[in-house]
Amino acid sequence: MDINSRISALKGVGEKTEKLFDKLHVYTIKDLLSLYPRSYEIYEPPVAIREAEEGKTVAISGVVFGRVQTGGSRNMQITTIYVKDITGTMKVIWFRMPFLKNTLSKGGTIILRGRIVRRRDQLLMEHPEIFYPASNYEKKLDTMQPVYPLTAGLTNNAVGKAVKQAFTLLDPKWDFLPLEICERYGLCCYADAVQKMHFPEEKASFYRARKRVVFDEFLIFILSLRQMKAGGERVKNHFPLQRRPEIDKFIDSLPYELTNAQKKVWEEICTDLEEKYVMSRLVQGDVGSGKTIVAVLGLLSAALNGYQGALMAPTEVLARQHYANITKMLEEYGFQVQTELLTGSMGAKEKRLAYERIESGKVQIIIGTHALIQEKVSYHRLAFVVTDEQHRFGVRQREALAGKGKQPHILVMSATPIPRTLAIILYGDLDISIIDELPKNRLPIKNCVVDTGYRNTAYSFMQKQIAAGRQCYIICPMVEESEHLEAENVLDYARELESVMGKEIQIGVLHGRMKQAEKDSIMEAFSKNEIQILVSTTVVEVGIDVPNATVIMIENAERFGLAQLHQLRGRVGRGKAQSYCIFMSASKTKETRKRLDILNHSNDGFYIAGEDLKLRGPGDLFGIRQSGIMDFKVADVFQDAEVLKQASEAADWILNTSCFYEEPKYQELKKLLWRYMSETMLETTL
Ligand SMILES: Nc1ncnc2c1ncn2[C@@H]1O[C@H](COP(=O)(O)OP(=O)(O)OP(=O)(O)O)[C@@H](O)[C@H]1O
After folding, report:
1. Which of ligand 1's atoms lies nearest the C-alpha of 292?
2. Could you tell me which residue ranges the Helicase C-terminal domain spans (predicted)?
């Protein structure tokens, strides 16, 4: 048995557990070793009850005061106690654990560790871990316990045990980075990093381990980008697309004038398309800056030159929106260009017909989701490819779509505000264009941060906006009620809202669990103003464009990341009318206030990303990735910007100062790199 053996080689991992690990994409012992914790439980000394802050997970030490109460319904028994120390009393509840009554009734000091939440304006501790006698807590004090990503049936304990077994197979001397690189960048060795990522002794050792893992992730990614660039050299432009006078006329006919930034970016694209080499370009622009029209011009250019263009959107809702808007726009202008939609939820027959039209070249502009890169699709003459919101797709999918044609031109759209220096490293294979200006007719969105007491005022405000012909979004974090989370849910919310708003106002509901056809009809009705208020989860987060919507109210705003709130807010302020964003939050914690304040005072994505980073600081690095860009497992592009720069420098150093292909010291690194590349490139051959 070694680290390449199947996970079932470990003691205690039978067929059933192996299947559960499969679900987490853990097949070998090596995979298990890189199943890093999602976060860590840090067992800090108990705090005084008076100091226990909302939203934090803390330990408190005290005695049970009064009787242990059990109540609730049969399905949902609730055990309640009050714990007292010299500073105050805290209500504590557990769900479905009536058997706790015995332990809790014994008397003496008890330590409880759990999350402090606010319910009906009262702070309480929910579902804590119990340490009785209190001396049991000492064993855990100041340790960091891993919290693994799990699947139903697999416990945190089971994963931890398996990981500990796997450690015994780890050769402490094996490393794929030569010592000189570790020394140069202050990195610990591989085996140490793996062990401390799973079971850090204290914060400092965790930081060291994490830095190494982040460095590795970036290094391999950057090396693979450089290899792709070097291996492919610059690809010849098989589809030189001429500038067509019809496109200039089309631009002149648009209901608005392109901004200077849009004109500049379009000019850069036109120049690329005529060049000797194929285009690979990233267009970066804040929410609502008008990236779509630039993509449409590119698709049109391919079609008018006798080729095909394809646009791949990250969600079905968005693909359908783009399809409807683009088709309408082209028809209204009178272009003889045929469009096609291709998404996963289409029926087999519908798909087959679409495939035929795509293959025969009857359609020139194809819009869809991942379905565009399915095996069965063959294109007639695919010359231009747009992928929307790059961070939703890895390099792999982008390449897969590109692989469908004879190296078509590629345009990647992104609303993620990455500073240019980092973008150059991360999108090393792409040239970068930036739309750094919003359309002139826009009024800045007016923001406010309010508590739930303001809700009725907000509703009246919405009614006034609707009376003036406008529409509104209300965003809730959840689809339906959950016993563990007190947060607004779309279904109950919409029901209650109906009684407040009256029959005149149509309310629609949108969430990820709905069937595609239902989602489509709701989105269509909203875009036609047949629905005035859309109560939705974050499914509307990216790209949805209904310029007539002028109000967005985000319930439980504290539950969302700043970048996500900024994207959500971007659903309004897309037309001429004044728009408003209401951040609703019952949370009174200082952190929430500070975070929401950043959004309250700025509508600028770059500024928000920067401030967010300052606020978070190193304390937030416990395995939680904030930005989710580009599918790194542990690394976070924003937080780990410095390590990213170091890895980029190291990649240059490795490739330039030595003979990477021949030197034995890079043997292991090369193996890893080829494996990574073959995995990420797998779909290219589809
Ligand atoms: N120059 C312009 N002047 C006025 N309106 C414009 C201009 N360019 C685009 N628009 C309009 O602005 C709205 C937002 O544009 P678009 O959907 O392209 O934004 P985006 O950059 O893709 O944003 P997101 O990242 O949110 O998807 C659309 O309704 C579009 O028609």
Report:
1. 18
2. 454-614
Query: In the structure encoding, which two tokens stand for residue 117, read together?
Result: 């939440």
| Count of CA atoms in the C-beta half-sphere (13 A) of 22 | 8
Banded pLDDT at 15 (limits 50, 70, 90): very high
Measured between alpha carbons, how far apart are the two ends of the chain, in Å?
Answer: 34
Domains belonging to the chain, first-starting first, are 44-141 (2.40.50.140), 245-435 (3.40.50.300), 446-602 (3.40.50.300)
Distance from Cα 286 to the centre of ligand 1, integer Å: 10
pLDDT for res 625:
46
Q: Which of 292, 367, 548, 550 to mutate to test the pocket of ligand 1 (most atoms within 8 A of CB)?
A: 292
C-beta 570 within 6 A of ligand 1: yes
Separation between Cα atoms, residue 554 and residue 117, nearest integer Å? 20
Residue 148: the pLDDT is 92
Residue 301: which of 254, 251, 261, 345 has the closest Cα? 251
Give the tokens for residue 570.
């971007």
Q: What is the pTM of this model?
A: 0.75
**Distance of alpha carbon 573 from alpha carbon 549, whole angstroms:** 8
What's the average model confidence in pLDDT over 200-216? 92
Q: Is there an atom of ligand 1 within 6 Å of 287 CB?
A: yes
Which stretches does DSSP call E strand in 86-143? 88-95, 109-119, 122-131
Residues 451-502 have pLDDT tens digits of 989 999 999 999 999 999 999 999 998 887 665 566 788 888 999 999 899 8
113-159 residue pLDDT tens: 999 988 877 899 999 999 998 889 998 888 888 989 888 889 998 99
The CA dihedral of 435, 440, 442, 446, to the nearest 10 degrees, is 80
What's the helix, strand, coil split of the chain in %, to 5? Answer: 45, 20, 35
Ligand 1 pocket, 391 CB below 6 A? no
β 280-285/431-435 pair status = parallel
Ligand 1 centre to CA of 613 (Å) is 27
| Segment (H or E) for 40 | strand 39-42
As a residue count, the chain comes to: 686
Ligand 1 proximity of 258 Cβ (cutoff 6 Å): yes
Evaluate: CB of 508 within 6 angstroms of ligand 1. Answer: no
Rounded CA separation 382/402 (Å): 9
